[in-house]
Amino acid sequence: MKKSLFLFLFLSVFITNLSAQKVYLPTPESIGKRPMPEWFGNAKFGIFVHWGLYAVPAWANPVGEPFKVSWETWFKNNAYAEWYLNTMKFKDAPTWKHHVETYGENFDYYDFVPVFNKKTVAWDAQKWTDLFSKIGAKYVVFTTKHHDGFTLYPSTVPNPFVDKSVINSPKDFVGELAKSSRKAGMKFGVYYSGGLDWTFYRSPIVNLFPDIFQSMPKSVAYTAYADNHYHELINRYKPDVLWNDINYPDNGDFLGICAEAINQNPNVVFNDRWGKFKEYGQYSTPEYRTLDSISVKKWETCRGIGYSFGYNQVENDKQLLSADALVDMLVDIVSKNGNFLLNVGPNANGEIPAIQIERLEALGEWLKINGEGIFDTKPYTVAEGASNQKIKIRFTQKENVVYTFLLDKLTDNQLIINKLKKGIKNVELLSDKPVPLKWKQNNEELTLTFPEKTKESYAHTLRVTY
Ligand code: GLC
Asked: Quick one: 327 and 441 in the same domain?
């Protein structure tokens, strides 16, 4: 009697659990209706890592910020160091000159494979994740296969043109980084170049139209190759983000990939770079760009600290954004419902160059004090305010608090800010210990008096409580 009661209880708990776990089908209805997992909207700040064979030459002509240089000039002088393989195909351009001088003209791009494999034997994910979590990042997105086709994990999907000893890393960088990121409390996502694979297409890409579109492999063999990679990545690493790049083959198993990814990990989110499947993307991905106002649809800006995603040894302070500019960008993005996926480009040994670390740490220090106005917040009714000192103002909100950010330095200790709704109870300046401020509100105009000795900050945050 006792035994059968126990069995009954056990079975009912088991069945309830089973039915609570929704199974997603590879259909437009099932995938299209799925709500966006909450963590992504709250995360605000992630780290993108572009790393691969291109970290060996680590060289590009820093011609200018992407999207600000004409496309005619861009491909020959591509500032993206991860495009080295394409850029070196222009025999009258600086990358080829650098290549011949450094490695000789008979040195093929894939000759970087043994160099990379040797330099990275001792690589340890922990150093990266210690830094990323220390500075407050909530997720990491890692290049599992960039346009050159080299996979950062020992894939078992055969490439029809290149031997696996060349095209697949023997070391499982993806697995190690996934494990270590999660251990440090961060989510882990996979970047995959679905639209471009230069082992399937070998001619140089000279211009955006029509070259880049023509260069996207569309064969049955490529479609199966990309699909199989995704299935493999999902089964092995259960990613929290599928960050596809450029496009996806029209006949690809996009819905199957989505369903499998969700069923393996209910937290998974998908970006929007999936070609004809773009509409299923849960967030848009402006690159080296931000939005002017609040967007109800979630979005994520990605960019390098300088002009490149992959490490470019030529870059210096002239190309890299300052910590101050990074802080302003993060605040601006978050105020408009975006996330900031800030890229790090490690060198071939897997070390993150000092000029990148400096800026990341400064941003992290700022977040330690001001992060409560960033993480887990929602946009306020407007993103931008104005002030009498022409200081740029941004807002976010959480429960009964409106966080008000001053993106420029105070020029006077009296500041008037508009756009804050009536009913303020209290205003504090976030600092090591919050500093109460003298304030007076007249309709939507708030007058503040700062103490004479207000500590400088890349951006002051006011905790305005209602
Ligand atoms: C682009 C570039 C690429 C970079 C990426 C990140 O499409 O081709 O090098 O990986 O976007 O957004």
From this structure: no
What would the two tokens of residue 401 be? 């608090």
- At 297-330, the pLDDT tens digits run 999 999 999 999 999 999 999 999 999 999 999 9
Ligand 1, pocket-test mutation among 67, 142, 309, most atoms within 8 A of CB: 309
DSSP 10-79: HHHHHHHHHHHSPPPPSSHHHHHTPPPPHHHHHH-EEEEE--SGGGTT------S-TTSS-HHHHGGG-S
- CATH number (domain holding residue 448): 2.60.40.1180
Residue 17 within any structural domain of the chain: no
149 contacts 161 by C-beta, under 8 angstroms:
no
Structural domain range at position 456? 384-465
The atom number, within ligand 1, closest to the CA of 82 reads 9
Stretches in the chain below the pLDDT threshold 70: 1-21
The residue to mutate among 80, 192, 308, 339, having the most atoms of ligand 1 within 8 angstroms of its beta carbon, is 80
- The SS3 assignment for 153 reads coil
User: How does DSSP classify residue 430?
Assistant: -
Question: Measuring CA to CA, which residue among 196, 203, 242, 243 is closest to residue 222?
Answer: 196
Report the predicted TM-score, pTM, of the whole model to 2 decimal places: 0.95
- The pLDDT score that the predictor gives to residue 92 is 96
Residues 389 and 248 in one domain: no
Closest CA to 220 of 228, 212, 210, 211: 228
Q: Are 192 and 230 in contact (CB under 8 A)?
A: yes
